[in-house]
Amino acid sequence: MGVGGTLISVYPEELTFLFELDKPCYCNLKVVNNSEHHVAFKVKTTSPRKYFVRPNASIVQPWDSCTITITLQAQKEYPPDMQCKDKFLIQSTKVAASTDMDEIPPDTFNKEADKVIEEMKLKVVYTLPSGGSDDSSVSSLGSRSFKAASDDLTMLKNASIEEIQTIQRLKDERDNMLQRNQQMQRELDVLRRRRSRKGDTGFSLTFAAFAGLIGVLVGLMMSLIFSSPPSTA
């Protein structure tokens, strides 16, 4: 099921994420243009730091569709009773056919007297990998999470100051590399869209190879961090 307006329809009508601790979760959203006009849309959320939306704004051609990927960043703890109060808002409006999808004017979604801005609200739902969301499942998962945290605390107590500083430095480097990798992926997606739309044959695969190398380095760094715990004193 989906929700629809005069300009666009959105499927599904709510965003469902398969929630797992310390892992990013993904959900796809399909935007369908119901009109003979070019329609621009923009995605907003009440928790912008928790979610990564790609693309968060674009233009859909008449009777065409677009798929949005929404990523819930890795979370350190379960929400109370697995309930989520986050909301998403999708705004849409008609634009000229000549409007560049990568350079949508910033005032496109301003509410003015002669402009129609349609809005649709979507709620967020979290589900567990086992398919159940009862209290016993959440309690069990919470107990396992607490035990893992206790083990980590014991390990840190037995580690020297130098080892703790090394672990923290490696984690900081990992986080920085992950952020750089996400930025590279966003830039690569923009270049791909421009190449597909304008037929730019000058795009080099060197950039894509470099982005892939960054991903491999991130994987190696994460493997080094989590497979080599500090020795006990």
Automatic annotation (TrEMBL):
<dbReference type="InterPro" id="IPR008962">
    <property type="entry name" value="PapD-like_sf"/>
</dbReference>
<feature type="coiled-coil region">
    <location>
        <begin position="167"/>
        <end position="194"/>
    </location>
</feature>
<feature type="domain" description="MSP">
    <location>
        <begin position="7"/>
        <end position="127"/>
    </location>
</feature>
<keyword id="KW-0175">Coiled coil</keyword>
<comment type="similarity">
    <text>Belongs to the VAMP-associated protein (VAP) (TC 9.B.17) family.</text>
</comment>
<dbReference type="InterPro" id="IPR013783">
    <property type="entry name" value="Ig-like_fold"/>
</dbReference>
<dbReference type="GO" id="GO:0005886">
    <property type="term" value="C:plasma membrane"/>
</dbReference>
<dbReference type="InterPro" id="IPR016763">
    <property type="entry name" value="VAP"/>
</dbReference>
<dbReference type="InterPro" id="IPR000535">
    <property type="entry name" value="MSP_dom"/>
</dbReference>
<feature type="transmembrane region" description="Helical">
    <location>
        <begin position="202"/>
        <end position="226"/>
    </location>
</feature>
<dbReference type="GO" id="GO:0005789">
    <property type="term" value="C:endoplasmic reticulum membrane"/>
</dbReference>
<dbReference type="GO" id="GO:0090158">
    <property type="term" value="P:endoplasmic reticulum membrane organization"/>
</dbReference>
<keyword id="KW-1133">Transmembrane helix</keyword>
<keyword id="KW-0472">Membrane</keyword>
<dbReference type="GO" id="GO:0061817">
    <property type="term" value="P:endoplasmic reticulum-plasma membrane tethering"/>
</dbReference>
<dbReference type="Pfam" id="PF00635">
    <property type="entry name" value="Motile_Sperm"/>
</dbReference>
<protein>
    <recommendedName>
        <fullName>MSP domain-containing protein</fullName>
    </recommendedName>
</protein>
<keyword id="KW-0812">Transmembrane</keyword>
